[in-house]
Task: inverse folding
């Protein structure tokens, strides 16, 4: 089993953001908003085809709003925040090259 070091994860993420900024990307405009959400038990089960009837719909603008709320020091961070960040990072990865 592989263990993920959270400090290394933070370093990787910081390095990726530094790279984007060095390429001149300081802001990205959301050009898409909605995306499919596949339940975890299907997402991580490559031996079976996922059931499209169980898919949900996520929204990048909502994810971004929730992330911005976490910048308020009075807001308590929640683990679900990683889902919002993950959706945004996935979108960013699809929009940037290099």
Result:
């Amino acid at each position: 089993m592989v263990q993920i070091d959270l400090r290394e994860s933070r370093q990787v993420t910081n390095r990726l953001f530094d790279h984007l900024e060095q390429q001149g990307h300081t802001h990205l405009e959301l050009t898409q908003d909605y995306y499919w959400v596949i339940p975890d038990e299907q997402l991580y089960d490559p031996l079976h085809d996922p059931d499209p009837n169980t898919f949900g719909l996520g929204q990048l603008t909502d994810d971004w709003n929730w992330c911005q709320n976490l910048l308020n020091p009075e807001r308590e961070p929640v683990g679900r925040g990683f889902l919002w960040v993950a959706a945004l990072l996935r979108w960013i990865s699809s929009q940037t090259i290099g």
